[in-house]
């Protein structure tokens, strides 16, 4: 008993020292917040619209208004009339003569933009330029000797590193939240062109009103611009996204020079390379971007890229996931001549490409998810000359019937789909399809099949046996 009593103070001392050591390892953000807050601003914008008289449901942040509209529909109409709509967000000063950076959705189509500093000074801001694809806007206020943020290097940011956000969530001005970098180079396909942005993912608490505010590293340097969150409730759920500052400053320079942004363009539709695809393409590892469609008169077409090519490297940058390609291509200056590495029919090949400029209103078609054969449960026929001409394809067979109990139906194949490829074989007629199926079964029970649906060609793996 006496030994136990002797050990008890030692255990208590050990636990106390351990807690103190852990506390010493946790960073303090107070100095960073004090030094950086003066260069962070609150942004209020207003515009006059004709429409429903209902007020916004997204806490005065347009990003969240869109969220509520998408999931809960339009609010009940109270008639049409002219009304003022106000939006709020955050931003930060990047030059002493009054240039500021924020999100495009904070000031989009605004009639008036008011910038409020932490010392209560207010200025009317001029919109110098904006870029919807990256969700960035450059503003200017008439003032001198303003406090400015320090610009960091987002390329040097590491996963697991501490980061701090300063902004005005729910109109609570100059609030500070902290977290870590969860991932880098995230692509967020959300129906817009934000796939061109290699987002930084964090777990920093970001809420309505934080949009456009800075993300700092522990050195007090801006490494990102808080832009979006993943949410099912309309509020913070632990997944936030920021635009890398290196990417943003390139946009800023272009907006200063010409008021618009030029991005590289390849002209292909792509999809992910799955394990089954990799196997059928003769690849040992599933990586890269699978070309499912090459657009007419595009840089890709002129360079000789073909459907079923897998792009594994572009301008010296490795393409691991399909989402890596739009980000990489978009960052290349239009007119640049680069080299790409592709895998074609199991062989590695290098091709030269002159990158084009992404058209202003361009929106790539999104690939849809997706022989007479009793095994597959489908009936096919050859395309007529008129059908091929109308659909602008030179080969393929049309599926006219699908057995709901068959293998094809169970894997998403539909009536009206056009089969263009099986394995590495072009399918021109029913004989080609039957032959390709038999050949595929000799080597594997899974084959890659090319399908045209609604004018967009995609590839998928198809199980040939139950």
From TrEMBL:
<keyword id="KW-0645">Protease</keyword>
<dbReference type="InterPro" id="IPR011782">
    <property type="entry name" value="Pept_S1C_Do"/>
</dbReference>
<keyword id="KW-0720">Serine protease</keyword>
<protein>
    <recommendedName>
        <fullName>Probable periplasmic serine endoprotease DegP-like</fullName>
        <ecNumber>3.4.21.107</ecNumber>
    </recommendedName>
</protein>
<keyword id="KW-0677">Repeat</keyword>
<dbReference type="GO" id="GO:0004252">
    <property type="term" value="F:serine-type endopeptidase activity"/>
</dbReference>
<comment type="similarity">
    <text>Belongs to the peptidase S1C family.</text>
</comment>
<feature type="domain" description="PDZ">
    <location>
        <begin position="361"/>
        <end position="455"/>
    </location>
</feature>
<keyword id="KW-0378">Hydrolase</keyword>
<dbReference type="InterPro" id="IPR009003">
    <property type="entry name" value="Peptidase_S1_PA"/>
</dbReference>
<keyword id="KW-0574">Periplasm</keyword>
<dbReference type="Pfam" id="PF13180">
    <property type="entry name" value="PDZ_2"/>
</dbReference>
<dbReference type="InterPro" id="IPR001940">
    <property type="entry name" value="Peptidase_S1C"/>
</dbReference>
<dbReference type="InterPro" id="IPR036034">
    <property type="entry name" value="PDZ_sf"/>
</dbReference>
<dbReference type="Pfam" id="PF13365">
    <property type="entry name" value="Trypsin_2"/>
</dbReference>
<keyword id="KW-0346">Stress response</keyword>
<feature type="domain" description="PDZ">
    <location>
        <begin position="267"/>
        <end position="319"/>
    </location>
</feature>
<dbReference type="GO" id="GO:0006508">
    <property type="term" value="P:proteolysis"/>
</dbReference>
<dbReference type="GO" id="GO:0030313">
    <property type="term" value="C:cell envelope"/>
</dbReference>
<keyword id="KW-0732">Signal</keyword>
<dbReference type="InterPro" id="IPR001478">
    <property type="entry name" value="PDZ"/>
</dbReference>
């Amino acid at each position: 008993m006496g030994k136990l009593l002797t050990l008890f103070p030692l255990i208590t001392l050990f636990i106390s020292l351990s807690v103190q050591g852990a506390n010493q390892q946790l960073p303090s953000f107070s100095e960073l917040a004090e030094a950086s807050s003066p260069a962070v601003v609150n942004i209020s914008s207003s515009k006059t619209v004709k429409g429903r008289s209902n007020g916004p449901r997204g806490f005065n942040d347009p990003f969240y208004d869109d969220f509520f509209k998408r999931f809960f529909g339009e609010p009940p109409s109270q008639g049409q009339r002219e009304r003022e709509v106000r939006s709020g967000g955050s931003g930060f000063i990047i030059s002493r003569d009054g240039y500021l950076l924020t999100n495009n959705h904070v000031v989009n189509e605004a009639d008036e933009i008011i910038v409020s500093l932490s010392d209560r000074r207010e200025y009317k801001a001029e919109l110098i330029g904006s870029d919807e694809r990256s969700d960035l806007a450059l503003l200017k206020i008439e003032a001198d000797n303003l406090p400015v943020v320090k610009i960091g290097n987002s390329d040097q940011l590491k996963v697991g590193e501490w980061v701090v956000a300063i902004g005005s969530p729910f109109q609570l001005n100059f609030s500070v939240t902290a977290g870590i970098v969860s991932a880098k180079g995230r692509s967020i396909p959300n129906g817009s062109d934000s796939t061109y942005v290699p987002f930084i993912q964090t777990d920093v608490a970001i809420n309505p009103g934080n949009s456009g505010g800075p993300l700092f590293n522990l050195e007090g340097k801006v490494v990102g611009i808080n832009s979006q969150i993943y949410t099912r409730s309309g509020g913070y759920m632990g997944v936030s996204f920021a635009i890398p500052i290196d990417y943003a400053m390139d946009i800023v320079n272009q907006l200063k020079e010409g008021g618009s942004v030029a991005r590289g363009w390849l002209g292909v539709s792509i999809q992910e390379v799955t394990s089954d695809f990799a196997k059928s393409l003769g690849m040992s590892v599933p990586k890269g971007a699978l070309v499912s469609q090459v657009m007419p008169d595009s840089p890709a077409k002129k360079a000789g890229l073909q459907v079923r090519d897998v792009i594994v490297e572009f301008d010296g940058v490795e393409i691991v996931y399909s989402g890596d390609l739009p980000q990489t291509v978009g960052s290349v200056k239009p007119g640049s001549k680069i080299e790409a590495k592709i895998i074609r029919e199991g062989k590695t090949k290098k091709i030269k490409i002159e990158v084009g400029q992404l058209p202003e209103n361009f929106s790539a078609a999104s690939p849809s998810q997706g022989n007479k054969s009793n095994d597959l449960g489908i009936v096919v026929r050859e395309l007529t000359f008129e059908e091929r001409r109308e659909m602008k394809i030179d080969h393929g067979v049309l599926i006219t019937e699908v057995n709901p109990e068959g293998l094809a139906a169970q894997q998403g194949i539909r009536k009206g789909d056009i089969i263009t490829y099986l394995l590495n074989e072009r399918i021109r007629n029913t004989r080609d399809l039957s032959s390709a199926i038999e050949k595929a079964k000799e080597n594997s029970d899974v084959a890659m099949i090319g399908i045209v649906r609604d004018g967009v060609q995609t590839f998928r793996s198809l199980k040939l046996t139950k």
